[in-house]
Structure formats: C-alpha cells, structure tokens
Write a structure and sequence with these properties.
The structure is a single chain. The protein is an alpha/beta fold. The chain has 14 helices and eleven strands. The longest helix has 20 residues.
Length: 309
C-alpha cells in the first residue's frame, strides 16, 4: 500500500510517502520538512493566525503535487498541539480536507504518543524498557514501553515554540530566563510523570527536530545527512555543553551554526533544555537519535500494522 502522511505540527509541516506492507516493511519514496511555525502566538492568543496557516498551506501545495505524482493510495494528515489548543483548529482542518482531499484530523496527545512510539521502535529491539521522547513545538510526548507494548504515555504542555515564547526574550537569553524555563519544564514533568515511571526506564530514544539537530550540530554536518543522524548517540554531558554553547549565541550567530537549519535557530535552546530536563528526570545519561517518528508510525498504522498499545 502506498501511503502519504502529512504531519502538521506546531513548528514544522512534514511529509512522508512510502510503500508499506502489512508485515510492517516500509520503503520511503519521498520525505520533506519545512519549518512553518503554525503555533506562533497560539499560547497567548488561543488562535491560529492567518499568516501561520498560509505558511502551512504553501508547504502543502508542494507536498500535494508530490503525492499526486507518486499516486498514493491513502493520503492522511495528522494535526497536533497547536491545532488542539486553538479555537479555530477545526475550521483549519476542514479547509485542508476540502483543498487537498486529505484524510485530515486532529489527533489527541495519547494517539500522538502511540504513533510516535510505533514509528521510533519499528526498527529497534524492543525488549528493554524504553523512553521515546518527542520534543515538539507545543507539546512533548513521553512514551514508555517494551516488547511492542506502551505501558505509560503523557503529552506534556511543554514545547519549543510554547516555552520560547513564554521565557526566552533576550538575545541571547539571560541566565534568569534560562532558569525560569528550566523550572517550568521540571515542574510539569514532576507533576505529570509518576516517580515510578521515571525510575523504570533503561534507555531513551529521541525523535523530531531538536534531537536530530543536536546530532547534526555535534557532527558538524553540512549538508544534513540522515544516515549519520539516525542512530547517533549523545550523552547528557555533551548535550549540556551544546546547550551552553547555543544559549550564549545571539540568534544571528545561532543561524550560522554548522549542522543547524537556520529556521530552527529561534527554538533550539528551549528544545535542548526540555530534552535535558527529561533525561535528568528519568535518571538517564544520554539518548539515541531516531529519524523514525510519528510520520512512520502513522504510515504503518494506516497500512494496518498492529498498534503498540
């Protein structure tokens, strides 16, 4: 079955077209990402702005052409935190269905977590208790599981766009702003993740833009190379050093960082801080980066591959 998935997140809009069989074998045909900042201002206003929605539809215009050319059998779109939190999210979804013929829907934080786990674990041994971390623009999904079964999941109201807008106003951010961000993230983790769950995990796999960007920065990749990013391991000491380096730079300098896409420069500090706080809370000394995430999970699910939950 040929499946096209469009993931419309708070910070980026992404597409995957792949051939998938019922046994879970997946062959990627096309994969694209654009930073579209759909969630810009949503934390304060509760509404998707017209300019943000226009950025998303501009990206999907290009994606739709590729989907048509590849003759996908199923064409789905999943919309996450920014749209869940907005008063006009349903109208935006309806416009996407009408304009592009996509099976578009807003998914819950619970389903987002499950699809992310399915994607991240699809090419890995699953016997050890594993934490999958998806630091998004408006929320962070934490999923714990082993042997293909999700045992715990939570969608934290913590994301790179949300926390940047709340806390990081200086250029570069001040120590006080960074401390406020750290305390905010840690408070929400401790509130929403039971201690027993935080102590029962043996490893972490991190997906999405923050993790992949850190892997690219640490390797000074230019251009970006998915083969070198996928499976790369970062220990927490190195991640802290990267945070110190990035947080000390003004935005213009951060945009020039080798391995970091310029569009991710405004939010990489918040994303790195969130990832570090998650690792600390779970007592983990590092994480493995995965290119397989909700896009892959949604494609597998649409093709009838068994759920992880």
């Amino acid at each position: 079955m040929r499946v096209a998935v469009v993931d419309i997140g708070t910070n980026s809009t992404r597409m995957l077209v792949a051939d998938v069989d019922r046994a879970g074998h997946l062959r990627e045909l096309d994969r694209r990402t654009e930073v579209t900042r759909l969630g810009e201002g949503v934390d304060a206003s509760g509404t998707l702005s017209s300019s943000a929605m226009a950025r998303v539809t501009k990206a999907i215009d290009g994606y739709a052409q590729a989907i048509d050319e590849l003759a996908a059998d199923a064409r789905i779109a999943v919309l996450t935190s920014a749209v869940r939190d907005s008063s006009n999210g349903e109208q935006f979804v309806a416009s996407l269905r009408e304009r592009y013929g996509l099976e578009a829907r807003i998914i819950s934080g619970e389903e987002e977590a499950q699809l992310t786990f399915l994607g991240a674990m699809s090419d890995r041994g699953a016997a050890r208790p594993t934490l999958v971390v998806d630091v998004g623009g408006g929320s962070t999904e934490l999923v714990v599981g082993a042997l293909g079964v999700v045992s715990f999941h939570v969608s934290l109201q913590v994301g790179v766009v949300r926390q940047t807008e709340r806390h990081l106003h200086g250029d570069p951010p001040s120590p006080g702003e960074l401390l406020a961000l750290r305390r905010d993230v840690r408070t929400l983790i401790e509130r929403d993740v039971p201690e027993a769950e935080r102590r029962g995990v043996e490893r972490a796999i991190a997906v999405a833009g923050t993790a992949t960007s850190l892997a690219a920065i640490d390797q000074a990749l230019a251009p970006y190379d998915r083969e070198l990013v996928h499976g790369y391991r970062l220990d927490i000491v190195t991640t802290r050093l990267l945070l110190s380096r990035l947080a000390a730079m003004p935005l213009a300098e951060r945009r020039e960082t080798r391995g970091l896409h310029p569009d991710r420069a405004p939010t990489i500090v918040a994303g790195t801080m969130i990832l570090i706080e998650v690792l600390d809370a779970f007592g983990l000394d590092g994480f493995e980066v995965s290119e397989n995430d909700i896009l892959r999970g949604a494609a597998l699910r649409r093709a009838g591959v068994a759920s992880t939950a």
